[in-house]
Automatic annotation (TrEMBL):
CDD domains: DnaJ (cd06257). This is J domain-containing protein. InterPro entries: DnaJ_domain (IPR001623), J_dom_sf (IPR036869). Residues 5-68 form the J domain.
Length: 216
């Protein structure tokens, strides 16, 4: 379970200061709302209990800062479509204030950096930044945006790489990295699991690699 999902289940808003008393209060309210005796369905009730157990393990002083910024932006966006002045004042504006408090860095890794699974040391903040991500936030209210230098290549949301090749090409070259193209790859239009690491909540995980989509 993810933080935002758990917060939504317990109706914990981004502007509310997270602590154990608040969590217990929200949990009790959610249990009353979704109790099987009331609704005849225990699925949501079980999810509420799981959300409570999950959030109970979160450090109070790191709770807000560990939430993925893009998810809060999405949350605020969908709420804003309801055109409710109270939602705007008490939910959307606090989210926007929270996000604007982040210190932002912008990095521009090359495709070679990403394929090599390079990690950049941000000395000023003493943080290690995996360069194959698109955007990261850290507990010290630090936001890192990664704008890769892709040349003519295209990167999708799952980190699959799209490149154009000639019919006679037998390999792809990115700096000192060479990736073999087989005839089977050309027929399939895809080099399987030899690309950039797939995005994961474990931000340093490089076990699963994305594909390279080849367009002849």
């Amino acid at each position: 379970m993810k933080i935002v999902e758990a917060c939504l289940l317990l109706q914990i808003k981004p502007h509310e200061r997270f602590d154990i008393p608040l969590l217990k209060k929200k949990y009790k309210k959610a249990c009353l709302l979704h109790h099987p005796d009331k609704k005849g369905n225990d699925t949501e009730f079980i999810r509420v209990k799981e959300a409570y157990a999950f959030l109970l393990t979160r450090p109070e002083d790191e709770f807000m800062d560990t939430i993925e910024e893009k998810r809060w932006r999405l949350y605020a966006y969908w709420l804003s479509r309801l055109e409710n002045p109270l939602l705007h004042q008490y939910v959307i504006q606090p989210i926007q204030r929270h996000l604007s408090s982040y210190k932002t860095y912008v990095l521009e890794p090359t495709l070679e950096n990403m394929l090599r699974k390079d990690v950049y040391y941000l000395e000023e903040e003493q943080l290690y930044i995996p360069l194959w991500h698109q955007e990261l936030t850290f507990y010290k209210k630090i936001r890192v945006i990664l704008n890769p230098k892709l040349g003519k290549a295209i990167l999708d949301e799952e980190n699959n790489l799209y490149v154009a090749i000639e019919p006679t090409d037998t390999c792809l070259r990115f700096g000192d990295i060479s990736i073999l193209i087989t005839e089977e790859d050309k027929k399939r239009g895809r080099i399987l699991q030899q690309g950039i690491p797939r995005l994961s909540e474990k931000i340093y995980d490089v076990e699963h690699l994305a594909d390279i989509i080849i367009q002849v």
